Amino acid sequence: MSEARAFKHIGQRTIRPDGFDKVTGKANYGADMSMPGMIWGAILRSPHAHANILSLDTTRAEASSDVLAVATFQDFPSVNDAAAAAGTLKSSLMETAENILAKNKVLYHGQAVAAVAARTEAAATAALALIDVEYEPLTPVLTIDAAIADDAPLLHPTMMTQGLLEPATEPSNIAARMELKKGDIEAGFAEAEVIVERSYNTPTVHQGYIEPHATVVRFDDNGPSTIWCPTQGHFDVRARVAQLLNLELGQLKVVASEIGGGFGGKTTVYLEPVALILSKKSGRPVKMTMTREDVFRASGPASASQSTIKIGAKMDGTITAMQATLHYEAGAFSGSPMGPGCMTVFTPYDVENLYVEGFDVVVNKPKVAAYRAPGAPQSEFAAEMAVNELAAKIGMDPIDLRLKNAAKEGTQTIYGPKLKVVGLEACLEAAKNSDHYRSSLGEHVGRGLAAGFWFNIGGQSSVIINLNPDGTGTILEGSPDIGGSRASMQMMAAEVLGIAPGKLNPIVADTEHVAYNQTTGGSRTTFATGMAVIEAAESVVDQLKSRAAAMWNVTAEQVEYSDGVAANLAGEDRLSLAEICANAEKTGGQISGTANINARGAGPSFAVHICDVKVDPDTGKTDVVRYTAIQDAGKAIHPSYVEGQFQGGAVQGIGWALNEEYVYSAEGVMENAGFLDYRIPLASDLPPIETIIVEVPNSFHPFGVRGVGETGIVPPLAAVGTAVAEAIGMPVTSLPCSPPKVLELLLSKS
Amino acid sequence: MKAHVSTTINQEPVEFLCDPAETLLKVLRDNLGMTGTKEGCGSGDCGACSVMLDGELVCACLVLGVEAEGARIETVEGVASADHLHVIQEKFLEHAALQCGICTPGLIVATKALLAENPNPTEADARYYLAGNLCRCTGYDKIIKAVMDAAETMRQGEAHE
Predict the structure, then answer these.
(1) Nearest CA in chain A to B108
(2) Which segments of A498-576 are extended strands (E)?
(3) For A334, which of A117, A175, A366, A499 could close a Cys bridge (C-beta 3.0–4.6 Å)?
(4) Does the beta carbon of B14 lie under 8 angstroms from any beta carbon of chain A?
């Protein structure tokens, strides 16, 4: 898609179709559901960060008249020892099960050990005291350094490192290693006239969605059991629960409630399988909710990281070599986003010689989950800080340095494909020309700039568009709407059909009413589900043309359709969409279009952020005083919600950079498991977040869309970190830049 | 033993039974089915359960159900009229001031309280007044724009009356 296309609805700022319910309190989220006869489940959680379970006795709980059901690991039929012994069990499934209900070892404080169901929430919580667990506490392993030390206690005594050059001979806490390379790294450094090398670390942080996990489940022996939950992917909840409980997919119906934030954290299951076990045993619908404390301690935060970056360059700014060693904490079970971290770290740069080595390290913390561009903020933070240090060292403007080395069409990535048309240079130019970048700085204020990259994905989406006899209709999609995507679907369908968006009602259908859809993640929804909406709408247009042709006794080729009206090319006849629908009974029945696609060609989205931070030299307190987020959207379907993604990502990144971190005691207990002490940004902490939407169309999408959801969290860590470093005149290597740490830096300077 | 409580919610008389330890939030949501008021933390830190109690903005998770006795409670369900949204609700929609929407009911209630106290807030006033209402999706930019626009529209409305 090269020429600019004129749109009627795309690019407008319409009112979102689900908005009315959300501003009036009518919208139903996870915990808002109740069912007749419903009882409550509660979870007993580990008081230790690392311990063997010597015995788990539920006798007293089962004997209690208050308790209607009890669940333990033994209730997972498909992940028992027999299956493991038979070799039919995937290790990832076993780990998923153990993360939901511990088997014979607890690996983090707060890990679920057993569950009960009772008639009230209070009775269920009280009954947890009737479960007797005997633990043998073990030494907790709480940092990457502690985990990779030679004599480190092992979380998983048989875990061998995958991906070593020689197969591992001894078990360790390193689950996996990966290596990516391009060119000749040694030659690249030999060519360099200047070298920058530094190590950085980032803390464990949480997505911080405001809605805690919750579910209501009704087991049904004679038909599909129903799971109601807030999730980014109800089809994947269905698959996971079916695997764990040895059910066919057809035995489960998953209904995605409205979802109160996820950011990657609601792409897995915690409560749902447990509630299904309790419902089956009690014969009653079961509701379970997490407290905020549970969410912090026992859902999936984002990896802490340690990164070492080395960059070689010529004095004219040409980067000749970039090297990274990246360690990511996986939490209790393997599976950190080390892979994407390695793949993204240097992607904003077109450099000949690259070498990246990554390690996935288990520690006694909750198993991490995806968090917005998983893995990228940590590694790109380190790379962007080092690039800014290089710019300072050679006396070059950080935008000019990036423009000189910017990834562009044809750049060979370290992970495989060559980049297609991308918007990094356009974002850098927009940054350079922005009012913000040209403005002067006040006293004690530093400015930082950073770029960011995220791949974006496509994948499977299914959509059905049904038209009513009066020309209104529904769009059945299967992508949970986490931030306004229904509005985009409505606009894209309206654009193709040539009718007002409000004529179409977009519905996030349950697993029984639309075919499989991949999870809302990877910034895929507006791109991939949008493509399915467009294809389904185009199918509807074809049918409208043939129905009009039937009414006029001409062929479909003799009918033209535009702006919601079919025209007979052989005469003056005109029929509106509504008129064709009104006559559908006479022309072959009602009109409906479907699309089942596996979308390819998700265009990467690059971003550049500029941040000004004021530091109080006496206290180390930081204030973001100006912030601008610039990002390539390909084509912004609904600009307000595109800006919203930029702003939300930026502010989560600001929180990560300035305040947020899991604080652990020596025993491995998180000491700030609440919003008072784990401080996400407040309205009063922030300035307006300025945005610039850059549009470099993605040729693989009919309207040019690139996903925009994730990239925005990548640049802020280094933009903020560099601004703080500039303000205090000291290198920043460790996040968060919280007041005590900044004060320590200031004191060490004087 | 459960307590019998008589109260007024959104100008309607309501009676309920509750355990003396149950919070007003639990009563509203689970006993009365008024799930517009959301729970984000249960510790008064996020503001998702903001309601008005005798004209004061409170977190319903920090109030006991029995404290509603004889009181006047207003929740998000009472903000819109039967036939139209409140200006604040309209402005939140116009400015795209919500993404997931879970914090929105609390913010609508808190914004209404702000504008009742201070019809002409500065942006800083609005940011500090709403600092007890956490939003993780939006970065607050569009929320503050919606609040400032609602304030101006409401002031103009009053001037015309």
Answers:
(1) A23
(2) 504-508, 559-562, 565-568, 574-576
(3) A175
(4) no
